[in-house]
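2024-03-11 09:14:02 INFO worker-7 job=invfold-0412 stage=load source=structure_tokens
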């Protein structure tokens, strides 16, 4: 039973997933800080205070929902324009470079080299 658990934990994709979760959490903090500390104050400076929490529709705190939607849109836009678009551009450039310069043909195996030498020697003797 412990061997099975050890095999499960040591499986490559489980470790990769654990690393991805940790990195994702850290990256989430970076994006949240970018939105809360940089982008939201910029939006507030351009269009007034970006806080809608005072808006209520009777007992319903509609403003908090609006704040959450705006925060989601700003986070989505930040991830798209600061991560996705630059990565797509890098991938496009790498693909273009790979297509422009095909790799050189691989070195023939030793057997092929030896056969070519034998053939050239036979042709020379004939």
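2024-03-11 09:14:09 INFO worker-7 stage=emit residues=126
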């Amino acid at each position: 039973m412990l061997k099975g658990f050890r095999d499960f934990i040591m499986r490559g994709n489980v470790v990769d997933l654990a690393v991805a979760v940790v990195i994702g959490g850290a990256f989430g903090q970076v994006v949240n800080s970018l939105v809360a500390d940089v982008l939201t104050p910029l939006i507030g400076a351009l269009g007034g205070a970006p806080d809608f929490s005072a808006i209520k529709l009777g007992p319903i705190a509609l403003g908090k929902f609006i704040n959450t939607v705006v925060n989601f849109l700003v986070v989505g836009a930040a991830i798209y324009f600061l991560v996705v678009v630059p990565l797509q551009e890098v991938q496009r450039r790498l693909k273009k470079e790979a297509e422009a310069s095909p790799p050189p043909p691989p070195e023939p195996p030793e057997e092929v080299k030896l056969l070519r030498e034998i053939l050239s020697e036979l042709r020379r003797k004939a």
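2024-03-11 09:14:09 INFO worker-7 stage=report msg="DSSP finds four helices and no strands in the chain."
2024-03-11 09:14:10 INFO worker-7 job finished
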